[in-house]
Design goal:
The chain is of the alpha/beta class. Helix content is 46%, strand content 11%. It has ten helices and seven strands. Strands 4-1-5-6-7 form a five-stranded parallel beta sheet, sandwiched between helices. The chain has a two-stranded antiparallel sheet with strand order 2-3. Helix 9 links the parallel strand 6 and strand 7.
Protein backbone atom coordinates (compact mmCIF):
# COMPACT_ATOMS: atom_id res chain seq x y z
CA UNK A 1 0.00 0.00 0.00
CA UNK A 2 2.96 2.36 0.28
CA UNK A 3 2.77 2.82 -3.48
CA UNK A 4 -0.82 4.10 -3.34
CA UNK A 5 -1.77 7.77 -3.56
CA UNK A 6 -4.91 8.34 -1.47
CA UNK A 7 -6.69 11.59 -2.34
CA UNK A 8 -9.30 12.73 0.18
CA UNK A 9 -12.15 15.09 -0.56
CA UNK A 10 -12.55 17.75 2.13
CA UNK A 11 -16.16 18.90 2.57
CA UNK A 12 -18.55 16.27 3.93
CA UNK A 13 -15.83 13.63 3.66
CA UNK A 14 -13.30 14.78 6.26
CA UNK A 15 -15.04 17.86 7.69
CA UNK A 16 -18.37 19.65 7.89
CA UNK A 17 -17.96 23.43 8.17
CA UNK A 18 -21.67 24.30 8.33
CA UNK A 19 -21.83 26.31 5.10
CA UNK A 20 -18.99 28.71 5.89
CA UNK A 21 -17.58 28.27 2.38
CA UNK A 22 -20.81 29.49 0.79
CA UNK A 23 -20.94 32.37 3.26
CA UNK A 24 -17.42 33.40 2.22
CA UNK A 25 -18.49 33.58 -1.43
CA UNK A 26 -21.62 35.51 -0.46
CA UNK A 27 -19.51 38.05 1.41
CA UNK A 28 -16.91 38.23 -1.38
CA UNK A 29 -19.57 38.92 -4.03
CA UNK A 30 -21.24 41.56 -1.85
CA UNK A 31 -17.94 43.37 -1.39
CA UNK A 32 -17.04 43.21 -5.08
CA UNK A 33 -20.39 44.26 -6.52
CA UNK A 34 -22.27 45.97 -3.70
CA UNK A 35 -25.22 43.58 -3.91
CA UNK A 36 -25.96 40.10 -2.60
CA UNK A 37 -25.93 36.86 -4.56
CA UNK A 38 -29.48 36.08 -5.66
CA UNK A 39 -28.95 32.94 -7.71
CA UNK A 40 -26.83 30.25 -6.03
CA UNK A 41 -25.22 27.59 -8.24
CA UNK A 42 -24.96 23.96 -7.10
CA UNK A 43 -21.82 23.32 -5.05
CA UNK A 44 -21.67 19.65 -4.04
CA UNK A 45 -18.63 18.00 -5.60
CA UNK A 46 -17.87 20.94 -7.89
CA UNK A 47 -14.71 23.01 -8.11
CA UNK A 48 -14.40 26.54 -6.80
CA UNK A 49 -13.43 27.69 -10.30
CA UNK A 50 -16.68 26.34 -11.74
CA UNK A 51 -18.71 27.67 -8.81
CA UNK A 52 -17.14 31.14 -9.05
CA UNK A 53 -17.82 31.31 -12.79
CA UNK A 54 -21.46 30.36 -12.23
CA UNK A 55 -21.87 32.83 -9.35
CA UNK A 56 -20.74 35.64 -11.65
CA UNK A 57 -22.69 34.47 -14.69
CA UNK A 58 -25.96 33.70 -12.89
CA UNK A 59 -25.92 37.01 -11.06
CA UNK A 60 -25.25 39.24 -14.04
CA UNK A 61 -21.59 40.00 -13.37
CA UNK A 62 -18.70 39.76 -15.86
CA UNK A 63 -17.20 36.26 -15.76
CA UNK A 64 -13.83 36.84 -17.39
CA UNK A 65 -10.51 35.78 -15.90
CA UNK A 66 -9.91 39.14 -14.22
CA UNK A 67 -13.23 39.02 -12.39
CA UNK A 68 -12.72 35.35 -11.49
CA UNK A 69 -9.35 36.13 -9.92
CA UNK A 70 -10.79 39.09 -8.04
CA UNK A 71 -13.62 36.95 -6.65
CA UNK A 72 -11.12 34.22 -5.71
CA UNK A 73 -8.99 36.65 -3.74
CA UNK A 74 -12.04 38.16 -2.05
CA UNK A 75 -13.36 34.70 -1.11
CA UNK A 76 -10.03 33.72 0.44
CA UNK A 77 -10.00 36.92 2.48
CA UNK A 78 -13.60 36.42 3.56
CA UNK A 79 -12.96 32.82 4.62
CA UNK A 80 -9.94 33.86 6.66
CA UNK A 81 -12.22 36.32 8.45
CA UNK A 82 -14.79 33.59 9.15
CA UNK A 83 -12.19 31.01 10.24
CA UNK A 84 -12.61 31.83 13.94
CA UNK A 85 -16.07 30.23 13.67
CA UNK A 86 -14.69 26.85 12.58
CA UNK A 87 -14.12 25.42 16.08
CA UNK A 88 -17.69 26.39 16.99
CA UNK A 89 -19.64 25.62 13.82
CA UNK A 90 -17.36 23.07 12.15
CA UNK A 91 -16.27 19.56 13.02
CA UNK A 92 -14.17 16.69 11.78
CA UNK A 93 -16.50 13.92 10.68
CA UNK A 94 -16.57 10.75 12.80
CA UNK A 95 -13.53 8.57 12.14
CA UNK A 96 -11.76 11.07 9.88
CA UNK A 97 -8.68 11.53 12.04
CA UNK A 98 -8.33 7.81 12.79
CA UNK A 99 -8.69 7.02 9.08
CA UNK A 100 -5.91 9.43 8.14
CA UNK A 101 -3.59 7.97 10.76
CA UNK A 102 -4.34 4.36 9.73
CA UNK A 103 -4.53 4.29 5.93
CA UNK A 104 -1.17 3.50 4.33
CA UNK A 105 0.34 5.27 1.36
CA UNK A 106 0.86 8.87 0.31
CA UNK A 107 -2.12 10.85 1.53
CA UNK A 108 -3.24 14.18 0.14
CA UNK A 109 -6.43 15.90 -0.98
CA UNK A 110 -8.37 16.23 -4.17
CA UNK A 111 -10.83 18.97 -3.43
CA UNK A 112 -12.96 21.53 -5.17
CA UNK A 113 -11.75 24.07 -2.61
CA UNK A 114 -9.12 26.70 -3.17
CA UNK A 115 -5.95 25.50 -1.47
CA UNK A 116 -6.00 28.28 1.11
CA UNK A 117 -9.59 27.51 2.06
CA UNK A 118 -8.91 23.77 2.23
CA UNK A 119 -5.99 24.30 4.61
CA UNK A 120 -8.02 26.61 6.84
CA UNK A 121 -10.95 24.15 6.97
CA UNK A 122 -8.73 21.22 7.96
CA UNK A 123 -6.46 23.08 10.36
CA UNK A 124 -8.52 23.30 13.57
CA UNK A 125 -9.27 19.59 13.59
CA UNK A 126 -5.73 18.19 13.55
CA UNK A 127 -5.98 16.79 10.03
CA UNK A 128 -3.38 18.80 8.10
CA UNK A 129 -0.35 17.12 9.65
CA UNK A 130 -1.44 13.75 8.26
CA UNK A 131 -1.69 15.02 4.68
CA UNK A 132 0.95 16.05 2.16
CA UNK A 133 -0.93 19.02 0.73
CA UNK A 134 1.75 19.56 -1.94
CA UNK A 135 0.86 16.18 -3.48
CA UNK A 136 -2.79 17.01 -4.10
CA UNK A 137 -4.96 19.12 -6.37
CA UNK A 138 -7.30 22.01 -5.74
CA UNK A 139 -10.37 23.50 -7.28
CA UNK A 140 -8.83 26.53 -8.89
CA UNK A 141 -6.57 24.50 -11.17
CA UNK A 142 -9.42 23.40 -13.43
CA UNK A 143 -13.20 23.78 -13.56
CA UNK A 144 -13.69 20.04 -14.19
CA UNK A 145 -13.06 17.87 -11.14
CA UNK A 146 -11.87 14.85 -13.13
CA UNK A 147 -9.00 16.91 -14.54
CA UNK A 148 -7.67 17.42 -11.02
CA UNK A 149 -6.76 13.73 -10.76
CA UNK A 150 -3.84 13.91 -13.17
CA UNK A 151 -2.75 17.21 -11.66
CA UNK A 152 -2.48 15.46 -8.28
CA UNK A 153 -0.73 12.46 -9.82
CA UNK A 154 1.81 14.78 -11.41
CA UNK A 155 2.44 16.61 -8.15
CA UNK A 156 2.83 13.35 -6.24
CA UNK A 157 5.10 11.87 -8.91
CA UNK A 158 7.38 14.89 -8.71
CA UNK A 159 7.55 14.75 -4.91
CA UNK A 160 7.93 10.97 -4.50
CA UNK A 161 9.64 10.05 -7.77
CA UNK A 162 7.23 7.26 -8.59
CA UNK A 163 4.11 6.80 -10.65
CA UNK A 164 0.57 6.60 -9.31
CA UNK A 165 -1.22 5.64 -12.49
CA UNK A 166 -4.44 3.66 -12.63
CA UNK A 167 -5.73 2.36 -9.34
CA UNK A 168 -2.50 3.22 -7.59
CA UNK A 169 -4.51 6.41 -7.06
CA UNK A 170 -7.60 6.10 -4.84
CA UNK A 171 -10.10 8.89 -4.34
CA UNK A 172 -12.24 9.08 -1.21
CA UNK A 173 -15.28 11.34 -1.50
CA UNK A 174 -18.97 11.78 -0.85
CA UNK A 175 -20.51 12.78 -4.20
CA UNK A 176 -21.16 11.20 -7.61
CA UNK A 177 -18.70 13.74 -9.04
CA UNK A 178 -15.94 12.23 -6.88
CA UNK A 179 -16.87 8.82 -8.28
CA UNK A 180 -16.98 10.14 -11.83
CA UNK A 181 -13.56 11.78 -11.47
CA UNK A 182 -12.05 8.44 -10.44
CA UNK A 183 -13.77 6.36 -13.10
CA UNK A 184 -12.86 8.77 -15.91
CA UNK A 185 -9.18 8.62 -14.95
CA UNK A 186 -8.86 4.93 -14.08
CA UNK A 187 -8.44 5.60 -10.36
CA UNK A 188 -9.98 3.60 -7.55
CA UNK A 189 -12.73 5.22 -5.51
CA UNK A 190 -14.20 4.79 -2.05
CA UNK A 191 -17.44 6.72 -1.62
CA UNK A 192 -18.80 7.66 1.79
CA UNK A 193 -22.44 8.56 2.40
CA UNK A 194 -21.59 11.41 4.77
CA UNK A 195 -22.90 14.20 2.54
CA UNK A 196 -26.20 14.56 0.73
CA UNK A 197 -25.94 11.34 -1.29
CA UNK A 198 -27.07 7.94 -0.05
CA UNK A 199 -25.23 4.64 -0.21
CA UNK A 200 -27.61 3.56 -3.01
CA UNK A 201 -26.90 6.66 -5.12
CA UNK A 202 -23.14 6.28 -4.71
CA UNK A 203 -23.31 2.59 -5.60
CA UNK A 204 -25.34 3.46 -8.69
CA UNK A 205 -22.70 6.03 -9.65
CA UNK A 206 -20.20 3.15 -9.84
CA UNK A 207 -18.02 3.54 -6.76
CA UNK A 208 -15.75 0.54 -6.20
CA UNK A 209 -16.58 0.56 -2.47
CA UNK A 210 -19.26 2.50 -0.59
CA UNK A 211 -19.20 3.08 3.17
CA UNK A 212 -21.84 4.73 5.35
CA UNK A 213 -19.12 6.84 7.01
CA UNK A 214 -15.50 6.68 8.21
CA UNK A 215 -16.23 5.51 11.75
CA UNK A 216 -15.03 1.91 11.19
CA UNK A 217 -11.30 2.50 10.83
CA UNK A 218 -10.47 -1.08 9.90
CA UNK A 219 -13.26 -0.97 7.33
CA UNK A 220 -11.84 2.19 5.79
CA UNK A 221 -8.36 0.66 5.53
CA UNK A 222 -9.85 -2.43 3.87
CA UNK A 223 -11.97 -0.30 1.52
CA UNK A 224 -8.96 1.68 0.29
CA UNK A 225 -7.06 -1.59 -0.29
CA UNK A 226 -9.99 -3.01 -2.26
CA UNK A 227 -10.33 0.13 -4.36
CA UNK A 228 -6.62 0.03 -5.16
CA UNK A 229 -6.70 -3.64 -6.26
Amino acid sequence: MDEVLVLWDVDHTLVDVDGLGREAYDLAFLRRFGRPIVHQPPMAGRTDRAIAHDVLHLNGAPAGEEQLEALRAAAETAFDELAHLLPVRGRALPGALDALTSVAGVQSVLTGNLRRIAEVKLGPFGLVEHLDLDAGAYGWSHAVRANLVDIARGAARQRYERSFEGRRTVLVGDTPLDVEAALLTGAGVVAVATGRYSVAVLEQAGAHVVLPDLSDTAGVVEAVARAAA
